[in-house]
Amino acid sequence: MFQKRGSFVQMKRRRGALLLPQIIILASVFFVTVVGVAVFLHFSSQPSTAATIATQPEVLPQVGTVEVIVPVSNIQPGSAFQPQMFKRERKPEVVVSPDTVRSFDELKGMYARGVLVANRLVNREFLTSLQPVNALTASIPPGYRAIAIPVDATSSVEGWAQAGARVDIVWVTEYTGRNTASVIAHNAKILSANRRTEGAPGAQRAKGKTAAASTAADSEAIPPTVTLLLSVQDAMKVRLATQHGKLGLVLRGAEDTGGVSITGAISEASLFGETFKATQITQRRITVVRVKDPKTGAEEIMKFELGRRLPN
Fold it and tell me: Which residue, 27, 36, 81, 132, is most buried by CB atoms nearer than 10 A?
């Protein structure tokens, strides 16, 4: 009896000893699970680092600015500067050069050498301390000359060759019995057209105008003369060419400021190509003369080429 009860107690102790480690393990797993869920819920409720960086405004480096003066409206060459012609503005320091005018004190007693464009920076290159005689002389740099030539609708490119445009000057004349054309000046600037130092509106028909009114406006847009800015040598060539032929202007593009690849004169032969040249080579000028013998009355045919008699 006592032996059975003792064995039962021993069995119960053994079961308790086996259950205790299992309970400890389950409690540990439960604790770790709870802690993990809590940490996950905590971080999931906060915005991620990438999202936080993305939402922060980008801080750009501060660019320094400089106070300068700019024209209120266009200022023509030869104009004396007045304070009311300018206004103060702040421009980025990177676009302001050492030659940029920053205050009106630098303009006192100065005159405009070229056109000063409204709201643009003023460069000292366009200033002069000498009072120009007129707007045209203010636009002539040292070493250059202004020369006027007559033009019409064709030679002025329908009037599009206005002040400020760049042109090539073509000279057409008769040379050694043949008409030739050559460019005698490249990239010449037009200073004025019909005494206008600003480009006139294009010769295009405005809306709402009658045909007669548009024709009259087109005629006014075509200047009878233009004044060109040329070097001294080119000015002499142009003046001489006006006495021995006809001049025409060839309008250049705004970005085309280089020279031209054509050198020398172009004759009428180039219009016919190689065929005309071959014909010229094979063509001979032979003069035929009939001579009659006064005694016999017989006629003899003689052929001459360049003053030399050819054999029959």
Answer: 81
Nearest CA-CA partner of 253 in 187, 190, 172: 187
The whole-angstrom distance between residue 187's C-alpha and the CA centroid of its chain comes to 14
CA distance 55 to 208: 56
Pairing relationship of beta strands 178-193 and 166-175 according to DSSP bridges: antiparallel
Query: 273-308: per-residue pLDDT in tens?
Result: 654 554 454 556 677 777 777 778 788 877 777 667
DSSP-assigned states of every residue in the chain: -HHHHHHHHHHHHHHHHHHHHHHHHHHHHHHHHHHHHHHHHHHHTSPPHHHHHHHSPP-PPPPPEEEEEEESS-B-TTPBP-GGGEEEEEEEGGG--TTB--SGGGGTT-EESSPBPTTSPPBGGGEESS--SSTTGGG--TTEEEEEEE--TTTTTTTT--TT-EEEEEEEEEETTEEEEEEEEEEEEEEEETTBSSPPPPS-PPTT--HHHHHHHHHHHS-SEEEEEEEHHHHHHHHHHTTSSEEEEEEPPTT--S--S--S-EETHHHHHHHHHHHHHH----EEEEEE-TTT--EEEEEEETTEEEP-
pTM reported for the whole predicted model: 0.51
Q: Region 19-39: what's the mean pLDDT?
A: 69
